[in-house]
Design a protein that fits this description.
Blueprint lengths: L4 E3 L4 E3 L2 E2 L1 H4 L10 H4 L1 H10 L12 H9 L20
Helix pairs in contact: 3-4
Length: about 90
């Protein structure tokens, strides 16, 4: 009997049929990724801090620290000239 299972970096297939994990839709994930779970908070922080961002970053380093460490009880609000995107409180 020959083994027709192949494995790549992305998935496992048997006779060209994708593995069960790759066939599952986004709705059936066991764990919601943090970028989806905290999308509103991340969008708010992106609008809250207009400072420069490193190449490829959506947030400033200061906003990343605020997201990870919290604001130490400080109430955050958007600057008057901020233009928040959709879903930003």
């Amino acid at each position: 009997m020959t083994d027709n299972t192949t494995t790549t970096m992305d998935s496992t297939t048997t006779d060209g049929v994708p593995g069960h994990a790759t066939a599952l839709g986004r709705e059936q994930r066991q764990v919601t990724p943090p970028e989806d779970r905290y999308a509103t908070e991340l969008a708010f922080l992106a609008a809250h801090d207009p400072g420069p961002r490193p190449p490829g970053w959506l947030l400033t380093p200061r906003a990343v620290v605020t997201f990870v460490m919290g604001s130490a009880g400080e109430a955050l609000s958007l600057p008057k000239d901020a233009r928040p995107g959709a879903g930003v409180p």
